[in-house]
């Protein structure tokens, strides 16, 4: 009699990021996100509290490297980094946390489209919507600083909800988890089957 074939656990990068290194990858990603948030919050503080004119409100790094604020490549690059991390780390989430993480991924996908439009305008020299400067779709409704605070919020909030739920899984979610984010696991033998 032959033994049944079982799939060997994948040892690829994505499998490791969503398994043994999920917690470390999430923490590293969170540091990047919080640093980006800090830049936007400092810029908002400069505008609304200090009264700095918008072109001179450059956040922290922009004070030392002013070209960073106006570099569409940098903004698009960050949008791609966010998109890649949200996509790459999604398999480590299960249940309710997975749903919220995918919401953040979907919103970030749109945010990345808007940044791509801005980059395209800068690179081609062709401005959209009859504007004199590169303009995204929602920038027709909200000024750029406010729009980016909005985008960062609507991506960050479902990310935080996902991480919160991920670290506090219900019993069923805990059974499905294969990552390193919570230290204890429910053994399948200790799960009491539901009464029929």
TrEMBL record:
<feature type="transmembrane region" description="Helical">
    <location>
        <begin position="73"/>
        <end position="89"/>
    </location>
</feature>
<keyword id="KW-0472">Membrane</keyword>
<feature type="transmembrane region" description="Helical">
    <location>
        <begin position="149"/>
        <end position="167"/>
    </location>
</feature>
<keyword id="KW-1133">Transmembrane helix</keyword>
<feature type="transmembrane region" description="Helical">
    <location>
        <begin position="101"/>
        <end position="120"/>
    </location>
</feature>
<keyword id="KW-0812">Transmembrane</keyword>
<protein>
    <submittedName>
        <fullName>Uncharacterized protein</fullName>
    </submittedName>
</protein>
